[in-house]
Amino acid sequence: MTSTMDDAAAVFADPTAYADEARLHAAMTYLRANKPVAYVDRKPYRPFYAVTKHADIMEIERNNALWLSEPRPVLTTAAADDAARAQLEAGGGLRTLIHMDDPHHKKVRAIGQDWFRPKALRDLEVRVDELARRYVDRMAEIGPECDFVEDIAVHFPLYVILSLLGLPEEDFPRMHQLTQELFGADDEEYRRGTTLEEHMSTLLDFFDYFSELTASRRANPTDDLASAIANGRVDGEPLSDVDTASYYVIVATAGHDTTKDAISGGLRALVENPDQLDRLRRDPELIGTAVEEMIRWSTPVKEFMRTAGEDTEVRGVPIAAGESVYLAYTSGNRDEEVFDDPHTFDVGRFPNQHLAFGYGIHFCLGAALARMEMRSLFSELIPRLESIELAGPPVLAATTFVGGLKHLPIRYSLR
């Protein structure tokens, strides 16, 4: 039993586990039933408690006064933890919204919040629909086969979010590559190198790019999100250089990469569940619930970490002040107590209380935009799709934070 428990808990400290779905879900199912709060002590990471039940994850997210994002918002190696802390103490490093706690988090979040409110998104919807048609047309042009991730799913949300920021189109490929290197540090295909220094150099490249952008937008403000960030203020003072550059990084990376993962994961689910694709063809009104199911199914953000601000417990397990928990969103989104037949892909699933956008004060800033992009793309694609099948094995990225399909080879015909 101990060996089985240890092996199951070890998936959270193994980036390759997220590229092996059978192993991952078997381990998470076992932990939910037998050890829903599991202690994990595996190098090169510092110890943590993996929280695998939906209700516990929500309760921790809800109590942000007790459970803090700082100093360990995501799972990284002990060496990376130390390097990040040293950089921040020296006045540099990365400090995005996911690193911050209230009240500072709320004030910084407000700088970009208006760009993701319903009115702003309604104004953007026509453009998103145009882009969806462009990329479905591109599928038709390059068919009858393509790698849906590399040819379509990457580019559509990348174009949307970087256009919203106001970046020039010639810089989009650079942003895509840097995003792959940042989130793909554990993946042999995506990472820049194997050393911590090489990984940190990716961040420095981001900061160099966005430092120039900040200077430009402060000198000549424009009507875009980049200008809003560059000229944002907290308590009457301009954002620090670190907070400004970090704001750009989180919007420019998570703002498209997570949507790419949900789009490609959603299409794969439809290909592998043709009965559900047929349901969508027969009843296009299901597109809203289908999108939520695609997001639950793929869960692009695998985890966030929280650190106890004082001694407490989770499901009877004592956790001391300063100890950390790993919020296993992928597991919470397959919790048998919340979802009927959680390992069944159901485009009509309702209700669907998935955790893929987080919960509480850190609920994803761009959730409504991601949903709109997915509705737009699949509303355009599905009526035009005459046939579709896999043209090779899907390939998932190794990760402990953000990730999904790297390659989805498909064979298809479009009207």
From TrEMBL:
Q: Where are the transmembrane segments?
A: none
Co-factor requirement? heme
Q: Which InterPro entries match?
A: Cyt_P450, Cyt_P450_B, Cyt_P450_CS, Cyt_P450_sf
* Region forming the signal peptide: none
Tell me the keywords, alphabetical order. Heme, Iron, Metal-binding, Monooxygenase, Oxidoreductase
Alphabetical list of PROSITE patterns matching this protein: CYTOCHROME_P450
| Similarity comment | Belongs to the cytochrome P450 family.
Q: What is this protein called?
A: Cytochrome P450
